[in-house]
Amino acid sequence: MAMGAVLSSRTFASPLSSSGKQHEMKQNNSSPPTGHKFSPLTTRTTIFQVSNYSRSTSMATFKLSGRFHQPVLESSSIRRWWFYSANLKRRRIECFLTSDPINTGWLKPRRWDNFTSLDTACVQPDYKIPVRTRADCKAEQYEITGSPLSPSDVPTEAVLIGDTDEISPWWQQFPKRWTIVVLCFFSFLLCNMDRVNMSIAILPMSSEFGWSPATVGLIQSSFFWGYLLTQILGGIWADRFGGKIVLGFGVVWWSIATVLTPLAAKIGLPFLLVMRAFMGIGEGVAMPAMNNILSKWVPVSERSRSLALVYSGMYLGSVTGLAFSPLLISRFGWPSVFYAFGSLGSVWFALWQRKAHSSPSEDPELSKDEKRHILGGSTLKEPVTSIPWKLILSKPPVWALIVSHFCHNWGTFILLTWMPTYYNQVLKFNLTESGLLCVLPWLTMAVFANIGGWIADTLVERGVSITNVRKIMQSIGFLGPALFLTLLSKVRTPAMAVLCMACSQGSDAFSQSGLYSNHQDIGPRYAGVLLGLSNTAGVLAGVFGTAATGYILQKGSWDSVFQVAVVLYIVGTVVWNVFSTGEKVLE
């Protein structure tokens, strides 16, 4: 509860006391006893200059019964203190005032002491604009004896100086921009859960339906047929209609396709290929829509961290899917994994519709302080009505994004779709072991993506140019996997193979602070279109790489698969460091 009044340190007498014994209100600045537990009391208060008011001035009435209650105005307009017992607890109050007008955060506490009178204690504030002030009060109990007070003996200086409303719960104070980030995180979690379940289910499905490795590769790549179609379209839709609508549509679409996958497989291979393509259509709009909405909600100083968190949702989705799919398949059969994962999309969509908005200007609950922090002095621009394709495609940094995204995704999608097969055929792990061991590399990516995000934002805050930060992080994201995939072809023990795979994926995660953050750097207004454009090249790498891996394995070995990926990683490193930039090139 909040204390809404400040009492002067005057001595006053009770007329109801026969002995004329005085009650004395004193300030105590002594240190608290060691080990004494304080009860924190927090209130939101605005201090303003006060003067001595007479008893006829309209004041608030407080009722005390061991604790303070909300003030109640009475018609008599006289402040009264009601004491229900002659033997009450007196409290020593120590106040610490802190305020932060911008982020409503905490600055260094300042002790509010040495009260001599209200005229000196409550002074005109220095702030010229309304600020949010907090007071932390520590109370220690000690005894006071005497008779009840008469209403006529209320100190005239006891004045209500602020509201006594309680602070909102922490979940209501959670920044709205990070609410959007967390919801995007869970959408990407579901995205990869629904995508990688086929990597596990394909093993019992191929045994049941008699599919060859080439057919398995065709099924795996069919997802990317639809995924490819909606990359650029998803970016255009998001930039025109808003990320909320487009991302919500994508989650609902791919969730329905996931649930219908077992039925399509039992009807026939062509129906399964079409259903996987339909699923790709839904997931294809996710990244452009997410990039669009975060470009409006997240300031540049938090960009790497927010994107790293969202993309770590993809990695944790792979972890969740690869960990639970074998358990569901072994107990309920392979169709169960599609039913279970697909149904989760409805839960997410309900939260998304209630909490998300495409931009800060559309959120009526967004505070002015947070909106000012998000915009950083700039103004929100109108939604895109036309895409300047000629201008976009004339910029070398855009082509650096396209080429680097292709090189990056070739290796990433091979590991995503073929890793369980590699563990099963090369390392001789069974189905359950293959799924569980596939968790380690993706868990490593989830951890290192966020580490890379914090490192990148810290470098930016310390003055390192955005261009250098992006080049450093992406070079790690290319050269790390190239090194560990080269070592993977040399090792012969399962433990070392799993370790190399984990290290390869962990270093790959630094790309989230490199090329995946660069779309918002060079053209925030066209962030959705830019990601759709570069990710189209990345999807082509997934289509060709996943299908090519199946044909390579029919005539060659896994060493050949890894060598192709290493060459593309090196090409991407050169292109990125020569042509990329962190400066805005598209207005």
Q: What report would you give on this structure?
A:
Probable anion transporter. This is Major facilitator superfamily (MFS) profile domain-containing protein. The chain crosses the membrane at residues 178-198, 218-238, 245-265, 271-294, 306-326, 332-351, 439-460, 472-489, 526-553, 560-579. This protein has 587 residues and is of the alpha+beta class. Among the domains are: 173-380, MFS general substrate transporter like domains (Growth Hormone, Chain: A, Up-down Bundle); 389-586, MFS general substrate transporter like domains (Growth Hormone, Chain: A, Up-down Bundle), CATH 1.20.1250.20. The chain has 19 helices and eleven strands. Strands 4-10-8-9 form a four-stranded antiparallel β-sheet, with no helix packed on it. Strands 6-5-7 form a three-stranded mixed β-sheet, with no helix packed on it. Strand 5 and strand 6 form a beta hairpin. Helix 8 packs antiparallel against helix 13. The two termini are 50 Å apart. Residues 1-140 and 158-165 have low confidence and may be disordered.
Topology diagram in text:
Blueprint: E1 5-6, E2 11-13, E3 22-24, E4 41-44, E5 60-63, E6 72-73, E7 81-82, E8 87-99, E9 110-112, H1 118-121, E10 133-145, E11 159-160, H2 170-173, H3 176-209, H4 213-241, H5 243-267, H6 269-284, H7 286-297, H8 303-332, H9 335-355, H10 368-375, H11 389-393, H12 396-425, H13 431-437, H14 439-461, H15 466-488, H16 494-508, H17 515-522, H18 527-555, H19 558-579
Parallel strand pairs: 5-7
Antiparallel strand pairs: 1-11, 2-3, 4-10, 5-6, 8-9, 8-10
Helix pairs in contact: 3-5, 3-7, 3-8, 3-9, 3-12, 4-5, 4-6, 4-7, 4-18, 5-6, 5-7, 5-9, 7-18, 8-9, 8-13, 8-14, 12-13, 12-17, 12-18, 12-19, 14-15, 14-16, 15-16, 15-17, 15-19, 17-18
Biased composition (Polar residues): 8-20
Membrane topology: Multi-pass membrane protein
Organism: Oryza punctata (Red rice)
